[in-house]
Task: structure prediction
Amino acid sequence: MQQLTLFSKPDCHLCHDARDLLIALQREYDFSFEELDITQDHALEDKYRDSIPVIVIGSQLELAAPIHERELRAALKQNG
Result:
């Protein structure tokens, strides 16, 4: 099973959309994900402030906003 991380922050509509997309794609792909609020960690906030939402697949691949379903599907297939 792949492990993904969604970096987000509260009140971010793009982050909510990315979370909804991940939940929907879990029906088709074998992965789990955790969501991390960048506002709770200064280093994460400095790193991702201008690019959230960011989805990290494994430890290598990062997809940053805007996240498109086609792009995410391709990444999941490639890394699956």
Summary: The chain has three helices and four strands. Strands lie at 2-8, 31-37, 54-57, 61-64. Residues 13-25 form the longest helix (13 residues). The two ends are 8 Å apart (CA to CA).
